[in-house]
Amino acid sequence: MATKVVMEALSPTMEEGRLVAWKKHEGDAVASGDVLAEVETDKAVMEIVARTGGTLLKQVVPEGSTVPVAALLAWIGNPGESVGDAGAAPVPAQGPASTGPASGPARGPAPTEKESTAVQVQAKESASTGTESTPVQTQAPAATRAPGERVKASPLARRMAADRGVDLAAIAGSGPDGRIVKRDVEEAVAGAPAGVTSGAAAAATETGPAFTDVPLSPMRKTIAKRLVQSIGPIPTFYLTTEVDMERAHEAREALLATGDGKFSFNDLIVRAAASALRQHPWVNAWWMDDRVRQWRDIHVGVAVAVEDGLITPVVRHADRKTLREIGAEVRELAGRAREKRLAPEEYTGATFSVSNLGMFGIDEFTAVINPPEAAILAVGRIEPKPVVVDGVVVVRRRLRLTLSCDHRVVDGATGAAFLKTLAGMLENPLALVW
Amino acid sequence: MAQQSFDVVFVGGGPAGYPGAIRAAQLGLSVAVVEKEKLGGVCVNIGCIPTKALLYSASMARVVRDEAKALGITTGDVTVDYGVAMRRSRQVADQNSKGVGFLMKKHKIAVISGTATLASSKTVKVGGDTITAKKAIVLATGSRSKGIPAIGLGINRTTVITSDEALFLEQAPASLAIVGAGAVGTEFADIFHAFGTKVTLIEALPRILPLEDAESSDAVTKSFRKRGIDVLAGVKVVKADVSDRGVTLTLEVGGATKTVMADKVLMAAGRAVNTDGIGLEAVGVKLTDRGFIRIDPTTLATSVPGIYAIGDVAGPPMLAHKGTREGVHVAEVIAGQSPHAIDYTNVPSVTYCQPEVASVGLTEEQVKAAGTKYTVGRFPFSANGRARATMDTDGFVKIIRDAKYGEILGAHIVSGHASEMIGELVMARTNELTVDEVDFAIHAHPTLSEAIGEAALDSLGRVLHI
Predict the structure, then answer these.
(1) Per-residue pLDDT tens digits for B248-278
(2) Across the interface, do A156 and B336 touch by the CB < 8 Å criterion?
(3) Buried b / exposed e across A126-152, counting CB within 10 Å, b at 16+?
(4) pTM beyond cutoff 0.90
(5) Who among B301, B432, B437 is closest to A182 (CB)?
(6) How far is A176 from chain B (nearest CA, A)?
(7) Do A155 and B433 touch (CB under 8 A)?
């Protein structure tokens, strides 16, 4: 019987995709794992791969057209097999979910019945075709839950996920009503890119679960309610500090002189922020509407300007990576971000973000929070300035950092304490290896 | 009526076909069920239901005979009459079959009496009539008892019988050899022994109830031997001499031979699926190597578009409740829904002899063979207060759990009420609850089901009551 190829939810936020180009023609033989078509999503150009072998019988959607997730794209079957009305009716087009709560860029809209059906089929088929080696194929179906929505998972799945460092909120369930079951966790572990899995698993063995959900105290609830009434859905406030970067500059020059790899000041800031977050769990957190999720893992999103917008690739476990690793990773991710070749898990799941406009000559600015994250750090340029040191005016390299804080999670003192730790680390880079 | 047309035609009104028909009708489809005998199929008429009635008689006979005095009840001489028990079992079966008829009427399902033959992928013939299925034909033709003619044990319905005949005997035979100690053979051994028959239970595999956990088999073997049933496992029947007065079986045990004489032989070694004479070849419905109809487990579709198969003909396990699930599933598939996949790893298995044996998931042997690291938790009913109070101290609960995550890999219960208790563990496994959740659930006291919580605790090394 012919098998349907449908528009897959290639990212958590994807509701529709534009079929850029067919990579197989009608009548071509396809093997499971072959790239069938390129699809442009809201974030990137990605590949639809065959989940079964056979012959591409029919391309249902022409190049250039935009179709919703779960819509029928093509049929794969035996040569000469009839498709279309003989098989099941094509999946009806489906619009964006209209009832989902306002959702941040990191998470998707509430799942609709159609979507979860599609994901279920996807999971089932990937189980039957075994593990393939193409990135999209092996990737576990992305979750389509609204922020704060309850994650349904079996006790066994929860236990396995905690043990193996899998974030249940990030995977889709194949059980009834999208419940995450054992198989889904196993597929997520098997399918996640090696770096992510081993890192996450290592984190789990070292520190237990990847996060702690903290219920809201009555005071936090009231703070949240009043602030939202006052200045909008994310009550943000800003804290600015100026950091002396002389010693960081010296350290960087000395390291670069060894000729062994490259790193930027921004890489240093990412690394320092990650270390500082380890001491300030309230800043490394998500606002989940009914609770605050304090992450034990530290994943830092680094904003990257791309041709027609902005994307935030994520440096996972940034607190456990060396400067050299962070430097190489940011450059590699940013490069692929500009080519729109990032996989969804590479730009979702950050626990904190850094945005740097120093290279554009900006002294200081305020960055907009990437919900559900609780804070974002805006980095200005490093500039020589006259400052008073020990009663004498001297010229020093200075940097202005501004932390945007979601006041529902981070209070003024909390944010200030974090910035103080961060500034201390940058002013004395040895603290990073202490 | 020369020609009739329905959305869906179910061929067979047994425990797979009739619930499927009801579900299809609920989903707004027009439905017909073709049944050549009685609604409810083997299960209701000559299987599950009447045997449960007879087992109840057997169980009560034992209680009255063996336990009444200790319970403070004085009886005179206790006599048993299989004919009376048999007639009650027929009433129960007939009531159930009528109940199915009522359900068909309630859901406006056409019941067509006769034998259906596939005429095309869209039509079946019943007698001279052609019935058209606009959306689907569902084959639910079931299975039947079979003999082993190759060794002289073809069914003759007098001395070589099957459950079909045993269920209608007017009196219990003086002696009976039962070939095959699966659920059917074991249950009849229990029934006839209680009615005074000298029973020999013969199994070719090394133990009776060969699909159950070895500890369950051992518990039933012990109980049977204690009450005087001759249990012969790992024994091959090589020859049978059948006369009109009885049967002499020649058995091979290890290297030696042995003969067993009995008034009758009851054949309970497997069942044959009803795939002959229904036109499968004509329309191209393919079979598996083992003779079942080949299906896609997701949709239950056969190799011919528009034709589906459910129940015993669609493959093992040949259990009514597995067929019922498939019936409901196929109806939803045909109505265009995407029902959740059938969980074939969580089909419970129950044998209703005394003590009953119930299980779900893997046996310890299977877990060992799979190389999984596991721990076993056990709790004997002899340590359970309610069991002592009600003289139900035979048996145990055994839970095999994954060593790392506590997943319940297999659960086995031997008890007078095992069939009613296994549901908790089926629910747990189906929803991936681990032994911790089973323990965490508060079990009412005093109940037999406390033993389930205790077995879960035992697997965690914290059993309370032993």
Answers:
(1) 999 998 889 999 999 999 999 989 999 999 9
(2) no
(3) beeeeebeebbbbbbbbbbbbbbbebb
(4) no
(5) B432
(6) 7
(7) yes
